[in-house]
């Protein structure tokens, strides 16, 4: 692969990464024969000080994790190490590093999803969960939804010790604007949450619930108690109404009843 040497400019190296990424994304299996040549370069670039090169390399890692299959397996250990450097960096969420952080979290999620048998999932999956929320990256939250839908034990914890974090993320996604999830994704989240309400120990649920913001509690309670085919936005509007004008209306009705 030309122009991958460290004596080349970051712009030139980034161009090489983009070519390989495009090949992986478009050709999938046909690109596998280039992994042994290109992945070491991708891994090295994922911790580069140049933010654009770093972002492109991490984006490539997430593609390789998804499409690489057994060819990617020998690189998983170093990929996790490189991703950890990005995620735990002191200034990981600084504006110039934020996109690389998002790509690193996404890549970690892809490794959890497609290479679980090759990692210590009891450690890695909770570490990935603790990186959420990711604003502006709906796919990561879709990954979370898929894992909760299948009652992923590593995600929830053997004794539901990770449930509070799950509930916190779900509450934020369901009660916030469109930058965290589509309406379809939000609708998918409701039934798994209803199921968890039945299976999570009452004390654990109550403890996790107490950590939510008051507005989140009110909206989430309204969402969970509403009919399954209800429109989510209308439920949220109702929750907000119940929090302000709704209470006034209720009080007025009570006064009318007392008058009778």
TrEMBL record:
<dbReference type="InterPro" id="IPR040122">
    <property type="entry name" value="Importin_beta"/>
</dbReference>
<dbReference type="GO" id="GO:0006606">
    <property type="term" value="P:protein import into nucleus"/>
</dbReference>
<keyword id="KW-0677">Repeat</keyword>
<dbReference type="InterPro" id="IPR011989">
    <property type="entry name" value="ARM-like"/>
</dbReference>
<keyword id="KW-0963">Cytoplasm</keyword>
<dbReference type="InterPro" id="IPR016024">
    <property type="entry name" value="ARM-type_fold"/>
</dbReference>
<protein>
    <submittedName>
        <fullName>Importin-5</fullName>
    </submittedName>
</protein>
<keyword id="KW-0653">Protein transport</keyword>
<keyword id="KW-0813">Transport</keyword>
<dbReference type="GO" id="GO:0005737">
    <property type="term" value="C:cytoplasm"/>
</dbReference>
């Amino acid at each position: 692969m030309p122009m991958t040497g460290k004596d080349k400019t970051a712009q030139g190296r980034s161009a090489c990464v983009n070519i390989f990424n495009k090949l992986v994304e478009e050709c999938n299996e046909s690109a596998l024969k280039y992994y042994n040549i290109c992945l070491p370069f991708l891994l090295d670039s994922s911790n580069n000080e140049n933010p654009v090169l770093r972002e492109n390399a991490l984006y490539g890692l997430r593609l390789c994790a998804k499409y690489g299959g057994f060819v990617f397996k020998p690189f998983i250990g170093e990929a996790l190490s490189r991703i950890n450097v990005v995620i735990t960096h002191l200034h990981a969420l600084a504006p110039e590093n934020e996109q690389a952080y998002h790509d690193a979290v996404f890549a970690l999620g892809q490794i959890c999803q497609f290479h679980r048998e090759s990692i210590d999932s009891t450690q890695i999956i909770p570490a990935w969960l603790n990186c959420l929320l990711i604003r502006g990256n709906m796919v990561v939250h879709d990954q979370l939804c898929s894992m909760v839908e299948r009652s992923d034990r590593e995600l929830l914890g053997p004794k539901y010790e990770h449930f509070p974090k799950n509930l916190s993320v779900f509450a934020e996604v369901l009660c916030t604007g469109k930058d965290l999830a589509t309406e379809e994704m939000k609708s998918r989240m409701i039934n798994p949450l209803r199921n968890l309400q039945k299976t999570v120990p009452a004390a654990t649920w109550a403890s996790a619930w107490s950590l939510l913001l008051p507005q989140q509690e009110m909206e989430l309670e309204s969402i969970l108690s509403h009919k399954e085919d209800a429109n989510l936005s209308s439920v949220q509007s109702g929750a907000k109404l119940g929090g302000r004008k709704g209470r006034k209306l209720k009080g007025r009705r009570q006064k009318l009843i007392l008058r009778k």
